[in-house]
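Summary for the steering committee. One of the milestones for this cycle was to obtain a three-dimensional model of the protein with magnesium ion bound, which we needed before selecting residues for the alanine scan. The sequence and ligand used are listed below.
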Amino acid sequence: MRVLVIGRGGREHALVWKLAQSPRVDRLFCAPGNAGTAMQAENVPIEFTPNDFDRLIRFAKKERVGLVVIGPEEPLAHGLTDAMQKERLRVFGPTKNAAQLEASKVFAKNLMRQADVPTAEFRTFDHPQPARLYIESREYPLVVKADGLAAGKGVIVCSTRQEALNAIDRIMIREEFGAAVGRQVVVEKRLEGQELSLFSLVSGRTILPLPPTQDHKAVYDGDQGPNTGGMGAYCPAPIATPELLQQIEEQVLVPTVSAMKHVRMSFKGLLFTGLMLTSQGPRVLEYNVRFGDPETQPLLMRLKSDLLDLLEAVVDETLGEIDESRIEWDPRPAVCVVLCSQGYPGPYVKGRVIQGLEDVGRMTDVQVFHAGTRREGDVILTDGGRVLGVTALGDTLADAKRRAYEAVSRISFLGMHYRKDIADKALLPPPAPPPPTPPALEAL
Ligand SMILES: Nc1ncnc2c1ncn2[C@@H]1O[C@H](COP(=O)(O)OP(=O)(O)O)[C@@H](O)[C@H]1O
Ligand SMILES: [Mg+2]
């Protein structure tokens, strides 16, 4: 079968790398891909743009592609799945309607409310003034979220009321994330806890959760600094006990999938639930409708079964026939460390020569997934904010971390930066609570 993967990031390189191992894949394309995907697939120089599905569709038909796998959220939100299905192409990825779970935070929160899925207390607004009044009336810290897709930048986690009021201005008045994206907002209670990413294959009524992972959003060690697309991840996440996963399946996954069916937007594809594990139990922060990046990198590093079988089972609605216990996972944990360009997540520099890739290529159980890279002659250059995802398996999580950083130490490019503490959340005891505040002087 011929398979076309759409996208150009670390997630797509991991998908391509895994699909290339399938004995049933005889030609693999990636549009547009990067210098990494070019090692296992044929890169096709077609960029997705919201108003031009035709070039991708024509390519897929001309090459008799048997399965299209859509990596990023943007084409899904714009209905590339629907357009391709109309042309009788087989597509892994939800329809435009179902993709609203990610593309509209207002839609997602309303669905959670309707389906009684545990999530942060919230209200939605389409005018700034009522949003401001609501903020004034809250006695707890808030998070303000622009409704639409904002490449991970439209969520403002606030510590003070003033910050939340400013967030309304930034989203709705100054339209920093775009006019359509900021037409509505979600204002919700700020929750405390560890975050968990849980991916599930979903088709019809069948839900197949994959091993849990944890991402690291903030740019600096100790979760400091601004949020990024993700600085590293590990799989499995020991915090997600079988009991917790069972609870999430019952309280979150089953009601979400049946609510989508109920509103005639049946979900088919990969459902990503971003959860906060609070002292009161798990709460959904958001849904995504595609594989997460970088979590997909350590996840697929551990998958031993044929990924094509799983993706096709979703598309053909035969997922229910797959025996979960027959899906083989490497028992060893995997850790992925993302190497970034100077300046990222702000404006960053591109075009720097990457050194050490061949050296790392000789290490066993280490895989360097490319994100923002391109080849020029014999050299590989940086070409994005997140450049590489260095992923390693190890006998223990600590060992996987050590091996990933060992590989990282062999790679360099000018201005390269990365977090040094990926997986520490699961390896180190939690930080001690702050000492009690001393009684005020007057009280003594
Ligand atoms: N209610 C909340 N309480 C605390 N932190 C939150 C809350 N909602 C979101 N966050 C933080 O903001 C990040 C981004 O929010 P999310 O809803 O996942 O949107 P997106 O990924 O589209 O930016 C989360 O990963 C989490 O760290
Ligand atoms: Mg998120």
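Key point for the committee: The radius of gyration is 22 Å.
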